[in-house]
Structures are given as structure tokens and as C-alpha cells.
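We were asked to recover a plausible sequence for a given structure. The inputs and outputs are reproduced exactly as logged, with field labels preserved.

PROBLEM: sequence recovery
POSITIONS: 267
GIVEN STRUCTURE:
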């Protein structure tokens, strides 16, 4: 059964991976998403957004570079280099806090600017522009203050999947074990309900060692779209034929209404 589950997730993951590049929605604010996607001119915006993505909703975290750019009247790296830590604290707190932990994230923001300058000569794109191995990309993100394996892996996955950045391999791009991925893995029968994030990561590695993170987008898609915490839309989910929770119980989830037809998601 696990091999069947992996085959469907990998197939959908490859479909998403091969899709033509299209505007990526990070925040839902078009100007902010344009800034984050402009790796040619503002690669540091993408990196700083990754650094900010911690303990708040992702959409709010990824808005921070844009909000800072609005306050500064631009987001060139040269402009950011002129900021002191106190300047950054003010930008992240006035007129209202941009993050749940503005003091800590101000230090992370300031440290990230310094690391981009000292390690990459002020050009954040050098983190990924030399066709590095996937492990090297993850390692480079881990060196930013406050960035852990989940965010570092997510960053590498977005670069490879959304921006089609060429890497030497994809072995070290894991699934990001967020609430959606962990819930779907559990309901599919791949892990237990109380599985730690590390178990989800190694489940992905076991199922598809060459590119574990390939299963991240479809799993997240299933969790966010159909496999909701309450009243999931099982009859519309393309994982229905292999879902252990759905197929082993007569009434899998409260409020679920099953239909005879199985709707397969289109790309």
C-alpha cells in the first residue's frame, strides 16, 4: 500500500515540478509577490522572507520585506546595508509590529543582511547560482540566524520547484513537516497520529530517496484543499483510493459525505 501511495504522490509531484513557471503566490498581495519573485534584482527579498517565516502565518511573514520596502522607498541591498539594528527594529515595530516577535526577528533580519554581504558579496543569488548540491543549498540557508531545517528545506524546495533553479541533485530536499503534511501522512497510514516531525521527514526519504521533497507539494495540496482537520472533502481527493483512514472505517470523519464518483484533481 505504501508503494501505491508513494507512486501517486510522486506522479503528482512530478506533474507540478515539470509545470511551466508561473507567478508564485506567496502573500496574495501582487506587489509583494512580484518583489519576492524577482530573483534577478532582489534575491535578498526571497532570502529575508525565508528568515522571517517563523511562528506566524507564512503569508504575514513573507509580507515583511515588502512592508520594509514601502517604509524605505525601495529595497536595494545597498539601502539595506545602511540600516542599523535600531533602524530595523523601528521598521519592524512602527506603526505596528510586523512579526509576533519583532525584537528577535529584527536581529535575524540584521544578521541576514550581514551574512549576505560577507559570505556572498551582497548578492544573495550566489546561494544557489553555482548549481550546488541540494545539501549545499540547505546548508547555506541553515547558516542564517533563526533558520532551521524546516525553513532551509522549504527554501531549497521553492527554488527548485517554483523558480526552476538547477541543482546538482535533489537528495537533501525533504518534505517540510508542517501541519498539513503530517496530517495527510497520518491519515494515509504512513505515520501515526502522534508522529514527530522527524518521522514525517524520514518517511518522505524512505518513500522517495532521490527527491523526498517532490512529495511535499502534493501532500500539502491535499491537506490544504481536501484533507481538512474538520469535515474533509474525501470524495474530491485524488488520494481516496489509497487512503487507509477512509477505506478502513465506515465513517472516517465527522460530517463527511461520500459520493460514488471520484474526482481527480487537475493541474
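RECOVERED SEQUENCE:
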Amino acid at each position: 500500500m505504501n508503494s501505491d501511495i508513494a507512486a501517486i504522490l510522486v506522479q503528482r509531484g512530478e506533474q507540478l515540478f515539470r509545470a511551466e513557471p508561473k507567478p508564485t503566490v506567496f502573500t496574495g498581495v501582487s506587489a509583494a509577490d512580484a518583489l519576492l519573485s524577482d530573483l534577478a534584482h532582489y534575491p535578498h527579498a526571497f532570502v529575508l522572507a525565508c528568515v522571517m517565516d517563523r511562528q506566524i502565518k507564512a503569508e504575514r511573514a513573507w509580507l515583511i520585506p515588502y512592508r520594509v520596502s514601502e517604509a524605505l522607498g525601495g529595497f536595494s541591498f545597498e539601502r539595506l546595508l545602511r540600516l542599523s539594528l535600531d533602524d530595523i527594529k523601528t521598521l519592524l515595530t512602527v506603526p505596528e509590529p510586523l512579526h509576533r516577535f519583532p525584537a528577535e526577528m529584527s536581529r535575524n533580519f540584521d544578521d541576514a543582511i550581514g551574512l549576505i554581504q560577507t559570505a556572498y558579496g551582497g548578492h544573495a543569488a550566489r546561494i544557489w547560482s553555482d548549481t550546488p548540491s541540494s545539501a549545499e543549498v540547505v546548508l547555506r540557508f541553515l547558516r542564517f540566524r533563526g533558520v532551521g531545517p524546516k525553513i532551509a528545506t522549504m527554501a531549497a524546495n521553492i527554488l527548485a520547484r517554483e523558480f526552476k533553479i538547477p541543482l546538482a541533485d535533489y537528495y537533501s530536499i525533504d518534505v517540510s513537516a508542517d501541519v498539513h503534511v503530517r496530517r495527510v501522512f497520518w491519515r494515509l497510514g504512513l505515520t501515526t497520529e502522534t508522529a514527530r516531525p522527524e518521522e514525517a521527514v524520514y518517511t518522505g526519504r524512505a518513500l522517495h530517496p532521490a527527491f523526498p521533497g517532490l512529495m511535499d507539494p502534493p501532500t500539502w495540496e491535499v491537506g490544504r484543499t481536501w484533507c481538512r482537520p474538520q469535515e474533509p472533502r474525501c470524495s474530491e481527493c485524488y488520494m481516496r483510493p489509497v487512503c487507509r483512514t477512509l477505506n478502513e472505517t465506515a465513517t472516517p470523519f465527522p460530517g463527511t459525505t461520500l459520493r460514488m464518483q471520484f474526482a481527480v484533481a487537475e493541474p
